[in-house]
Amino acid sequence: YTVGRHLEDTVLNRIQKVVEQCSGLQGFLIFHSFGGGTGSGLTSLLQERLAELYGKKSKLTFSIYPSPHLSTSVVEPYNSILTTHSSLEHTDCSFMVDNEAIYDICREKMGICRPTYTNLNRIVAQVVSSITASLRFQGSLNVDLVEFQTNLVP
């Protein structure tokens, strides 16, 4: 919340400009990490504000969850707990991506000994692309965000 307070108005103004250009806003797809300060703090703040401003619109998150074995910061567990609480309050649907599992996929399945952020991000992009395909393409499986969430419930 510390750095985020300074950026809040700027980010919300830019979101508002994009929303104004939409002919049929269904909701928001939010990408962030649970462990990083900006990814957790700023995103929590923005989720709170989006819930206030666009309460009825769907909010789906794609979240990178930290691993205790690959921690880059001492405060990752603290950030994760606070962000988890915020996500439970202000998110309609969350797709969790385990940071350690992404590293394992790179090492064990792709044979990359020292994965770069580019390698990791490409895997996440493939996952997001696969999950959102029914939102982006025409056909019998094409759905909107509300129906998309409904189909996830068994």
| Mean pLDDT across residues | 85
The helix count comes to 6
Biggest sheet strand line-up: 1-2-3
* String of helices and strands: HEHEHEHHH
User: What is the percentage of strand-forming residues?
Assistant: 5-15%
| Main beta-sheet strand count, sense and barrel state | 3 strands, parallel
What low-confidence regions span 5 or more consecutive residues with pLDDT below 50?
none
Q: How many DSSP E strands? A: 3
Rg from alpha-carbon coordinates = 17 Å
> How many angstroms separate the termini?
36 Å
Identify the overall geometry: globular
Helix amount, in percent?
A: 55-70%
Q: What structural class results from the helix and strand content?
A: alpha/beta
Could you give a short description of this structure?
By secondary structure, the chain is α/β, with parallel strands linked by helices. It has six helices and three strands. The model has no long low-confidence stretch (mean pLDDT 85).
